[in-house]
Amino acid sequence: MRVRGMAFIAIAAIVFGACSSTPAASSAPSKAPSAAASAAPSTAPSTAPSTAPSGGAASGQLTYTIMNDFPSCFHPICFQTGGQLTVFTMLYSGLVKRDATEKIIASLADSWEASPDATTFTFHLNKKATWSDGQPVTADDVVFTVTEAKKNAEIYVTNGTYPITAWLVTKTVEAVDPNTVKFTLSAPNAVFLENLTDPAHMIVAKHVLEKLDGATLRENDYNKGKGVVGSGPYTLANFTPDQTVELAANPNYFLGAPKIAKIFYRVKVSADTAAAQLQSGELGLVLELKPSDFSVLKAAPGIKAVQIPGVGQQTLQYMTASKQMSDARVRQAVNFAFDRKTLLETVFLGAGRLLWIDAGFNPDDPKLEHYDFNPDKAKELLAAAAKDGKYDPNTPVRIIYSTQQAGWPEIAAALDANLTAIGMKHTMVPSDDAGWTKAVGGTDYEISLQCCGSPGLGPWKAPGIFTGKNSTRYSDPALTALFDQAAQTGDKAKADELYAQAGQMINTAAPYDWLWAVAHTDAYTDKLTPDIHALARESFVSVEQWTLAP
Fold this sequence. Notes:
Elements: H1 8-17, H2 32-38, E1 59-66, H3 82-91, E2 96-98, E3 104-106, E4 109-114, E5 120-125, H4 139-151, H5 153-156, H6 165-168, E6 170-177, E7 180-185, H7 192-196, H8 206-209, H9 215-218, E8 234-240, E9 244-249, E10 260-266, H10 274-280, E11 285-289, H11 294-298, E12 303-318, H12 328-337, H13 340-346, E13 352-354, H14 375-387, E14 397-402, H15 408-421, E15 426-431, H16 433-440, E16 447-450, H17 477-488, H18 492-509, E17 512-525, E18 528-529, E19 547-548
Parallel strand pairs: 1-10, 1-11, 14-15, 14-16
Antiparallel strand pairs: 2-3, 4-5, 5-7, 6-7, 8-9, 9-10, 11-17, 12-16, 12-17, 13-17, 18-19
């Protein structure tokens, strides 16, 4: 995904016109903002109907799976995985969402305005929006969601969950009236709307969850699938842990009643058998198949197979809080030692784009190290780190991964061989999805396989990754300052320069080995229409429009 423009005119387009350009804010409201504001309409028009269209009753059922874990939690506080993303997209709604082209469009908010300096955002809620228990969605629900999330921010970043970036930059949030909510930010923020599209920012029902707080916020019956209330196109009908999530059409969904009556998410399907289960009709949709399944399914009758560019990335994630991985030279050594290019071309059949920085940054910056395969360089870096007492060559590096994630066993095997070749002692620690999810949320490892996230949306996604409390535990105050300045400037050239500096810092610090930007292999029955989205992250964004022929 290419880095997109950030001039203030582009801010006006996205803030006021709901277009897809990445915005930037001006820190000097007396300058360009007034001109930009006058160049765009005062509200963002809804791209969805204001009333739910009428139609026949929903019918049929679709069973799908995704080669991804589903942690047994139904509150956005727990959002971690692609499996949860599919379910949360059906159960909940955010203020705004993305369509298949990455354009920001209406969801709970059918229009919005922003101040010229991008410090206040006012959202007007769709008056047809209701919770699945029949209660109306109001501005009080939005205020509750934001204030409770901020109050319990530490819980939201425990176990590697997505950061609540947009909520944390909110200074105050107030209900102007039952259908209008106003955000005042702590500083100009060009990417506020962009961050609102992450599932961690989905709105929850105050009347259902207001008694939960602190420790009870993570451990409670609601999170386990009991009494879940949302505003999305489907409701939770039943949940059997580690087996199925059953969802039923919500006939009162404010953007239009779904056409498929029931959707079943089959959890923990093996990547080795998923293609066969699709061909047999046991499954109707499979996301994130092995790339090697593509050619077979492409030729299979009654099946549509596609390879979809995603905004996620396959990486090795380094626990920088670990003594063995705390020195950048050790992390760089692993990057040079791992022959990711050969692996991508042979085992993964070229289904991806090689990376050396987060997928949303400009990969053509000549100052970036590409970490091309160089075992001798890797040995030199390890020796230098050991000489300085920053690395113990006699202590094995622990590498955790799930055997249930498509492609991970193959990546682990290649990494094992490459590290053995440079003499780096290590221990491979395979587990199932649940075991890996638990382990990666802690700090008791040195390297983990990781995928996929949405960093390819743009460099503005990176601040949520490098907070010091998430994923790698890597942070740098100077890096944070660069991101803050980039979000606040209204000067495109300046923003590009700041993001370039940030990318160079991250590239050198190497908290990850960026392997490749992921191209997802998906397949589904040709009875399912319309075609699933051309952007993997948004596969279920308009699920209410899907139909399934008998």
